[in-house]
Amino acid sequence: MNEIQTELKSQLERFRKEKIEPTVEHDDKNEHFKMELFQELGQLGFCGMTLPEDHGGAGLTYQDLCVALGEIAKSSVSYAATISVSTMVQAIINEFGNDEQKKKYLPSLTSGEEIGAFCLSESSSGSDAASLKMTAKKVDGGYSLNGSKMWITSGGIAKTYIVMARTGEEGHKGISAFIVRDGMDGFSYGKKESKMGWKVSPTRELIFENCIVPEENLLKEEGYGFKIAMAALDRGRITIGSIAVGLCERAIDESISYSLERKQFKKEIFDFQGLQFMMADMATETEASRLLVEQAAKYYDEGKPNQKLASMAKMKSTDTAMKVSTDAVQILGGVGYTSEYPVERLMRDAKVLQILEGTNQIQRVVIARSLKKEYS
Ligand code: CAA
Fold it and tell me: Which of 125, 172, 299, 359, when mutated, tests ligand 1's pocket best, judged by the most ligand atoms within 8 Å of its CB?
């Protein structure tokens, strides 16, 4: 870790212990997202880390962002995920938006004053994203959006939504991306999902009924939406990986600390080889995941985005998070299954990491396609 990363990590460690930890269990139970806490992270520069300084960002690298998200995730996967998705929205506008769009939408996102949301999935198109049905029909001065989006992270609390909708033919070539703002006529929120984990981060359905979006809100050009979404997910998958690594590190901290304290059969349970092997595996798999995430981020920072590595990083680290958090609950035993210790929350929060931003089965599809290309 370089000097900047060491500093970011220690600043965030203090922040999460002082500001997140004291109420994290209560907020989880009450599904309470604290906008003021997100905004405080924004004031400290953590909500627009990778954006250039002239758009209010901190001009840092994806490797730095991964360190920061991992640290936040040790206390709250929900806040880390909110930042991760909002950063993905900023990256889309920065890469595919025109100067007007960047000036208009980026500052409030990079400062953390507002949150961004990414809207691709629909009830009938999850993994097969190119089959989405939501329409955007050309009308005088803009587009009329009709349809709905499902499982949208930060739905209802975000102000800027990147929405993929169909402007043309079937398949990926008919999809375009739009910037939609909270409060636009014809745009409303559907049901808030009741979830196993990520309870602080709201997940919601979005409904569009003749929602007129001005022409100037189209990103890049008609038909480019699927590529925008895929390119964004390549980055998002790396940052989701870093959140998984942070979650693993916390689960390991909890497991080792507990097993060094807890005595059974007159000795610390850490000294039983059965548990030692579990903890050795947890630490090794976590380290391997961290290195893979770091490598994927490094390629990205060096201007050589590597889709295969991003998928490998997401898949490996999130499968590891599920295994490590489940083992942590096992090591803590009865108390591990209660909310007295954070491991049960970590286990619940880990599950969706294997599902969102492309299920881990889809990551394997991406990896295999890339291998086929390399060998053909
Ligand atoms: N960057 C740029 N372009 C890309 C690309 C990338 N990473 N990946 C693919 N493309 C392009 C291809 O080159 C191709 O373009 P051409 O025809 O011009 O060559 C086009 O996109 C179509 O590519 P594919 O044929 O590979 O598309 P496909 O229909 O077979 O789908 C897939 C591929 C990998 C399965 C993709 O559909 C996918 O990733 N599915 C999962 C969707 C997903 O991750 N959803 C998560 C939603 S967000 C979320 O989880 C929650 C949240 O709030 C963030």
Answer: 172
Residue range 234-260: average pLDDT?
Answer: 98
For residue 375, with 0-12 CB atoms within 10 Å meaning exposed, 13-18 middle and 19 or more buried, which class applies?
A: exposed
- Per the CB < 8 A criterion, the answer to whether 44 and 11 are in contact is yes
Class of 117-225 in CATH: mainly beta
Task: For residue range 210-233, list pLDDT tens digits in order.
Answer: 999 999 999 999 999 999 999 999
- Helices 77-96 and 99-110: crossing angle, nearest 10°? 160
The amino acid at 44: L
> Is the Cβ atom of 120 under 6 angstroms away from ligand 1?
yes
CATH code: domain 227-375 is 1.20.140.10
Tell me what percent of the residues of the chain surpass a pLDDT of 70.
100
CA 129 – ligand 1 centroid, Å: 7
Q: What is the DSSP letter of 57?
A: -
* Segments making up each domain of the chain, as ranges: 3-115, 117-225, 227-375
State which fold the 3-115 domain adopts. Answer: Butyryl-Coa Dehydrogenase, subunit A; domain 1 (1.10.540)
Question: What tens digit of pLDDT does each residue of 48-77 get?
Answer: 999 999 999 999 999 999 999 999 999 999
Give the per-residue pLDDT at 109. 98
Q: Is 118 in the pocket of ligand 1 (CB under 6 A)?
A: yes
Dihedral sign of CA atoms 157, 159, 160, 162 in order: positive
The answer to whether the CB of 344 is under 6 A from ligand 1 is no
pTM above 0.90, yes or no: yes
